[in-house]
Amino acid sequence: DWSSDVCSSDLKGLDAALAFFQTGSGREEMAKIRAILNRLTSEEDSRLLMENAVNHASIRNFNFTFDMLLLAIAVTVLSVFFLLTIHFKKRTRDLVELYENKELLQKIIDNSPSLVSVKDLAGRYKFANRHYDELFHIPKEELHGKTDYDFFPSEVAKKERHTDLDVVRFRRAMNFERDLPINNLWRHYLSAKFPLMDHEQFVYAIGCISTDITERKRYEQVLKERSDAILDLFNFAPFGYHSVDSNYIITEINETELRWLGYSREEVVGKMNIFELYADESRELAIQLREKISDGILKSVHDQEMRYRRKNGSTLPVLVNSVIEYDANGVFSRYKTALFEITSRKKTDKLVSQN
User: Cα–Cα distance between 133 and 131 in angstroms, integer?
Assistant: First the structure.
């Protein structure tokens, strides 16, 4: 059949090829083929060796690069871990310090004898110290969200609201004195109110520190009453008094002397030289005393009889008692004088001399 014919034909061709290569020319061709195959094999081996060397170098470079990358990743991870550790330690310390400072500030505020509070722009309390609880019997936690109208009379709360708005309007700290009803008693407080601002300098709340100055006000009133009494005693004493500076300008004078001389305080204090008040017969003596004062040898004057000129031109006989003061360098600075009016005594002396 056909397949057996093909196989028979192939066998005949193979036999013919073998017979050819057994001849002389066939051997030469076979040698050439072997030489070509050997050269190709050698070239392929060389190429394979070169590619193998290149591959080994690439592998080494890859391994080195990979190792360096792993080292860099390890260093980065360790650095990040170290920095995070430092950051969290510092953050922990800062949080602890912040907590301690907050606790310290809270204790200081709570133990302050003043009323300390913070209100929002609507007048609602956001914070109050423990002193509010002690005075108003309202726990500071319950005070949150309330306004002054919740525990002050309407008129007092209205004044408080008005001062709060002034602080917001003018954006600066301000002091106010106010009377507050505490346990059915009116107490006088000095309040320092100040605006609280955010990072954009917008006012978001009002802080207030109020100190009870009731006793101080009472003490000031007592001092004022006593000072007024002393001033009345000084002004209306039965003797005249004045003081002059280094230029002999009158710096102080009491009402008694003003009444004797017929001048007003505005005409004399800071304007009139004492030598304008001496009558002619006493001015020469006053000049002599001034020379001694300039030389620094006169310390005081006792019961020196002199005559002063009144505004209406008449004279006033007086006894002069003065204390002269000098500075650390011995330069005259001022003197203080008490005058005793002796008109009656002069009349008596005149009558005695006539009899």
Answer: 5
